[in-house]
């Protein structure tokens, strides 16, 4: 599976591994360099893994690296690895243990990462992870959010708050 592929083919490449109705949770980050220490962390944390779980590495290079970080909301444009920890389960009773495993594994991996993708934020991720997803572009995007959505109408996700520092009062999932 190591070869250039069209974007749609890449998007469909793991469809069979993520069937509809399966429960999942994930943590994702960009890794500029795969070190021996990181490999040791991954091996140690995947000795026993749920049969449906996935650990993904995708290399980022080519066209994505030729766009200046400030030209789009997404700033992570260097040659790097996309790394994803995704446990999946059928039995809802497994949720707590697999989420705990993911969080503990992520706590070890995160120091090796540089940012994340907003698409992969979990409901329990807070403003710091949102800021990590946009990196140095967050302040500029917060100013735009303040201009076009000052009341944070589009708030039912981990979103950019309408000012650079974040509101003192915020609840990403408040429906009021």
UniProtKB/TrEMBL annotation:
Q: Cofactors per UniProt?
A: FAD
Q: Out of the domains of life, which is the source? A: Bacteria
Stored InterPro entries: BBE, FAD-bd_PCMH_sub2, FAD-linked_Oxidoreductase
UniProt keyword terms in alphabetical order? FAD, Flavoprotein, Oxidoreductase
Highest lineage ranks of the organism? Bacteria, Pseudomonadati, Bacteroidota, Cytophagia, Cytophagales
Q: Which organism is it from?
A: Cyclobacterium jeungdonense
Q: Which residues form the Berberine/berberine-like domain?
A: 118-160
Name of the protein in its database record:
BBE domain-containing protein
């Amino acid at each position: 599976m190591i070869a250039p592929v069209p974007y749609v083919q890449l998007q469909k490449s793991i469809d069979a591994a993520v069937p509809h109705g399966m429960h999942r949770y994930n943590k994702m980050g960009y890794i500029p360099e795969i070190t021996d220490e990181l490999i040791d962390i991954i091996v140690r944390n995947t000795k026993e893994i749920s049969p449906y779980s996935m650990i993904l590495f995708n290399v980022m290079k080519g066209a994505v690296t030729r766009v200046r970080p400030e030209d789009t909301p997404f700033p992570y444009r260097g040659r790097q690895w996309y790394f994803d920890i995704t446990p999946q389960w059928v039995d809802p009773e497994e949720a707590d243990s697999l989420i705990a495993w993911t969080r503990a594994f992520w706590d070890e991996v995160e120091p090796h990462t540089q940012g994340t993708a907003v698409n992969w934020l979990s409901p329990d991720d807070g403003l710091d992870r949102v800021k990590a997803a946009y990196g140095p572009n967050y302040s500029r995007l917060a100013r735009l959010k303040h201009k076009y959505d000052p009341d944070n109408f589009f708030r039912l996700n981990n979103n950019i708050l309408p000012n650079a520092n974040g509101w003192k009062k915020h609840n990403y999932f408040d429906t009021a």
